[in-house]
Every structure is written in structure tokens, then in C-alpha cells.
Specification:
Elements: H1 24-33, H2 38-45, H3 49-56, H4 64-76, E1 79-82, E2 91-94
Antiparallel strand pairs: 1-2
Length: about 100
């Protein structure tokens, strides 16, 4: 499991596109890529585990501030969120 740190926020690397709103699938992919469980991500982002689980399952939305906290936590952990472009839909990748 990767440790989460707070040294970068909303970083754009190489050709990656900064995404302001992430999808439930992107959140789940990012969490999984970092080796985090729902509870671990929720604790790191200071949100309720049920909030993360509900959003990832598509059964509910998140307030924009809450979603931003979760996104920053995942980005600080080493994930880059990629917006949709001519080559495909939204996605995630790990920082080099």
C-alpha cells in the first residue's frame, strides 16, 4: 500500500489533463491503484466510509467540497486523473 502525503495538489504532469470532477469509476480505480480500502481512503480524506462507498457504487452523489477532499487525497497519494479526450474516456494513472 502506498502512503498518502500532502506535498502536491492538482498536479498536471506531461500530457495529463487536470480533472475538476471525477467519476465514481475513476475514484474506485484510483483507490484500488493505491492499494487503499474504502475505510482507508475515507479516513485519509476525513469523510465517512459510507459516503465513499455510496459514491463509488453510483447510489449517491457527494457534495463538491467532499469530492474535492477525496480527489486531493488520491492525487496526493500519487494518482493523476485524466479527462476524456479524442483517444478515450476519463481515466486514472499513477505518477511516474
Amino acid at each position: 500500500m502506498r502512503t498518502l502525503n500532502r506535498h502536491c495538489q492538482h498536479t498536471v504532469c506531461e500530457s495529463a489533463v487536470s480533472v475538476s470532477i471525477i467519476t465514481p469509476l475513476q475514484m474506485k480505480l484510483a483507490r484500488t491503484a493505491l492499494g487503499l480500502g474504502v475505510r482507508e481512503l475515507a479516513a485519509a480524506a476525513d469523510v465517512a466510509p459510507s459516503t465513499v462507498q455510496r459514491f463509488e457504487s453510483g447510489k449517491g452523489d457527494m457534495h463538491s467540497r467532499t469530492l474535492d477532499k477525496v480527489q486531493r487525497t488520491l492525487e496526493d497519494g500519487g494518482v493523476i486523473f485524466i479527462g476524456p479526450d479524442a483517444d478515450g474516456g476519463p481515466g486514472v494513472r499513477l505518477k511516474a
